[in-house]
Amino acid sequence: MDFATILQIVDSAVRLMTPLLLACLAGLYSERAGIFDIGLEGKMLMAAFTSASVAYATGTVWLGLLAGIGGALALSLVHGLASITFRGNQLISGVAINFLAAGLTVLLGQKIFGLGGRTPSLEGDARFHAITLPFAENLRGVPVIGPIYAEVISGHTVLVYLAFALVPLTWWVLYRTRFGLRLRAVGENPASVDTAGVSVTRMRYAAVAICGVLCGIAGAYLATGISAGFVKDMTAGRGYIALAALIFAKWRPWPALFATFLFGLMEAVSNRFPDLDLGFVTIPSMFMNALPYILTVIILAGFVGRAIPPRAGGEPYVKER
Amino acid sequence: MERMPKWADVILTPLISLVLAFAISALVILAIGESPVEALKVMVEGALLSSYGWGYTLYYATNFVFTGLAVMVAYHAGLFNIGGEGQAAIGGLGVTLVLLYLPWPHWALALPAAMVGAALFGALWALIPAWLQARRGSHIVITTIMFNFIAAALLNYLLVNVLRPQGSMDPASASFPPATHLPKLSDMALGLGFEWGKNTPANITFFIAIGACLLVWLLIWRTRLGYEIRALGKSEPAAVYAGISPTRIIVIAMLISGALAGLMAINNVMGEAERLIFNAVEGAGFIGIAVALMGRNHPFGVFLAALLFGFLYQGGGELALWTTIPRELIIVIQALVILFTGALDNMVRMPLERFFMAMRKRGGA
């Protein structure tokens, strides 16, 4: 395997990790505030559909992005109602949201476009296009750094750079702002936040809404960045891989970056080498596809450092009377 | 003091939740420009007004009874098993190995052996998540989700590389020998002298499903183990105080749950496809969640809910055939049932409780 191939694989890993990273950060906000969210998958799927539909109808990808955020936010609201206001089971609500999105996207897609749940292909301004960073072509000649800059760092859509910028931003919000302190406190010990006179309900709704916005961007990237349009069930388990990455990263932003890069890299490698021949043994592509899940189970088992979720996660908060 | 009478808790609340779920489903049908009444008519006609429709409805219902019972048993122990999909798929692998690699002279001998294979494989697939939950505290919901994906990858690998007969292109195992084919309900009806459900996949497994409902009822409410499972589900500290080992109960409850999910393979793999195909479970593992929630985690309720979902499933197929409404309508209905009977339960319950409290106050004064 030569240098150019490695660069291509890393480049495609960056592309593939972006929706994972966005969804993972989305889950991070929600779960840090004590709201488990296994509905990342559904929210991304809904966002992919709404963004592709609106981008097609208006021919403007930015309106598509807004619609994607709107679609995901609507499902976030359902999740918030079920798990915050009506103190229902957050896991069951997440399962319901995933099915709701899987069904509604096809139903509406068939009604609007009549293509069996697909949207028509997006062209021109209805898609996000790659941005060539300054001097990428001039620097290509520089040994090692030049090709890395031109191939891996340059040439992605704006959403990819946004996703990467969100990592330090999330770190800053979580650990350096009052909002972040309260958010984390609500996930660990909501009663203490309540005692301090801060509304637990409002904090949790804010977290769930942020989660919706990020899932919306992730879905929009899938349908208008990586692909040119929505196809049925296009998230294909990415929401669950993001969930796995979140556990892998132990609910922290910087490790989330590395976890999603690792999982993106696995997907890139298995795309490039369906059956990876290591000389002494051939690794089937199915194994590479299952590896994120296997790794997560091992992490969860606590054999490689223990993953401890936010303490109040999954529990509705009941104010004492 | 109870906040509302038992009948309101057991019957009225789920009924209102269901009505809400179906009302919104009707709105969805209206929104895509179709008539809900027409849609219902097509569904009833296609699923209930002919023995052919019933043959499919009962076949699907049989699947959902098993996965519904699987979710239910785990639920009583306070565990949410989303892994029915993977457990049922791996159960299919157990059935396939038993039927393909052992010689069977007659289906009546093959059936119990295949049941053992299905239950054993399903239970083993639930064992690791169970053990991780019990001993390492890793959340069973996450691990069972992960195991669904691992099961899909494993089966994909086995079907493409190991079980696929030479020269065949599609990822499926060889067909099972004819001696192991289960009698269909239509054959049994012919044996009794009348024609019913010709060319439908409903088979003898339907009666096994009914038996499973009875056994699960006995287990949960009439045995010591069932008592321990329910005690753990209600309160872990109380169960520990009563000398019940949570580890033991979690593992046993999940083994039973996985075995029940695995047994579904008797119906779809041995009874219908008569070979192992990729994605044989077709989401039945997830429908089990809706079935268990709707059936209020009681075997009788699970049976009724499974029948309803069997009807929806078959009716949904007919809808896709005769109208422009896609099959996915059923997924939306399933989602709404899970949402309203599971997650938004309190939305119905809280006002009802208030209503009954007010009634009682007036009655007392």
UniProtKB/TrEMBL annotation, chain A:
Listed transmembrane segments: 12-30, 65-84, 91-113, 153-174, 205-231, 251-269
Gene Ontology CC annotations of this record: plasma membrane
Any one GO MF annotation of this record: transmembrane transporter activity
InterPro entries, alphabetized: ABC_transp_permease
Annotated keywords: Cell membrane, Membrane, Transmembrane, Transmembrane helix
Keyword Cytoplasm: no
Membrane topology category: Multi-pass membrane protein
This protein's record includes keyword Signal: no
CDD domains, per database record: TM_PBP1_transp_TpRbsC_like (cd06580)
Record localization: Cell membrane
Major localisation: membrane
Name of the molecule in the record: Nucleoside ABC transporter membrane protein
Organism in which the protein naturally occurs: Paracoccus lutimaris
Automatic annotation (TrEMBL), chain B:
Membrane topology label: Multi-pass membrane protein
Gene Ontology CC entries for this record: plasma membrane
Keywords, ordered alphabetically: Cell membrane, Membrane, Transmembrane, Transmembrane helix
TM spans (from-to): 12-33, 53-75, 87-104, 110-128, 140-160, 202-221, 249-270, 276-295, 302-323, 329-352
CDD domains, sorted: TM_PBP1_transp_TpRbsC_like
Keyword Membrane annotated: yes
GO molecular function: transmembrane transporter activity
Compartment(s) of residence: Cell membrane
Keyword Transmembrane helix: yes
Protein name, per record: Nucleoside ABC transporter membrane protein
Species the sequence originates in: Paracoccus lutimaris
Organism phylogeny: Bacteria, Pseudomonadati, Pseudomonadota, Alphaproteobacteria, Rhodobacterales
